[in-house]
Amino acid sequence: MGKKKREIKRKGKPEEHGIDSAGKDDMFTRSRENLLLGILILYVLMLGLGTFGELFEVEWILNLPLFR
Questions:
Q1: Could you tell me the CA-to-CA distances from 8 to 1, 3, 5, 17, 30 in Å, in that order?
Q2: Rounded distance, CA 59 to CA 68, Å?
Q3: Contact present, 14 and 21 (Cβ < 8 Å)
Q4: Integer Cα distance of 43 and 49 in angstroms
Q5: In the chain, fewer beta carbons within 10 Å around the N or the C end?
Q6: Three-class SS of 26-53
Q7: What is the dihedral of CA 13, 14, 15, 20, to 10 degrees?
């Protein structure tokens, strides 16, 4: 008559199933990764801007304090 609810036992590491045992550490790691990614993107954009300025001799780019 009455049905029993079955518990599903999860095998493996807790991280594989979305259970976060260290929430603060995970948040800190994500923010550090995002910061490093942002710095990398900014570096590539500045490198591209300087390259563009050198190739096409764009004076206002070459006169920026960053490229003097």
A1: 22, 15, 10, 12, 30
A2: 11
A3: yes
A4: 10
A5: N
A6: HHHHHHHHHHHHHHHHHHHHHHHHHHHH
A7: -150
pTM, two decimals, is: 0.59
Q: What is the 3-state secondary structure (H, E, C) of 1-12?
A: CCCCCCCCCCCC
Tokens 């304090």, located at residue:
65
Provide the 3-class DSSP secondary structure of residue 19.
coil
**Residue 27, both tokens:** 């948040």
CA distances from 45 to 42, 51, 55, 57 (A): 5, 10, 15, 17
- Phi-psi label, residue 57: left if phi above 0, alpha if psi -120 to 50, beta otherwise: left
